[in-house]
Amino acid sequence: MGQKKMRNYATMKRTLSLRDQRLKEKDRLKPKEKENKDPSALKEREVPQHPSCLFCQYNTQLGPPYHILVDTNFINFSIKAKLDLVQSMMGCLHVKCIPCITDCVMVEIEKLGQKYRVALRIAKDPRFEQLPCTHTGTYAHDCLVQRVTQPKSTTPGDRDLKRRIHKIPGIPIIIYNIQRLHVKLHYEHNIT
To answer: Considering the entire predicted model, what is its pTM?
Structure first.
């Protein structure tokens, strides 16, 4: 009728005694209890400070020749639209432009393989300035967001990267729109 009752073995997690010989001296000390923090207390957090020149009516550190950071997706979009990157940038800004590509963007293009060999050939163009990366890993978005705080404009092809760069005041973004490049200025930022 009913189920046979089974005895539960090891239902509690077994712990070592503080007097156990296998423990070392530092492990024998009782762990300190964490202080319960008051939820109504003010929380302090550090927010990265942006240079003061970026909060003016325009970015005072930008000037010709413009150094433009190029993303992997932007190179691919320009290939699909059959645009010469350097010529279309000069046509958009009406001044000399130096496209810059970081090492992590170059590695990202190399990892894409044989399908993107044209993008790799464009990225290795001598008109592009190679920027060395000192960080570990090959995630290009973090590197580009970090470098944007320096006086450079950027050309993100990815929506997520555009949103991240949009939060930084005073950085113009060059976007691809209907077979042309356009400059999108973001000087109307909320300073918080």
So the answer is: 0.56
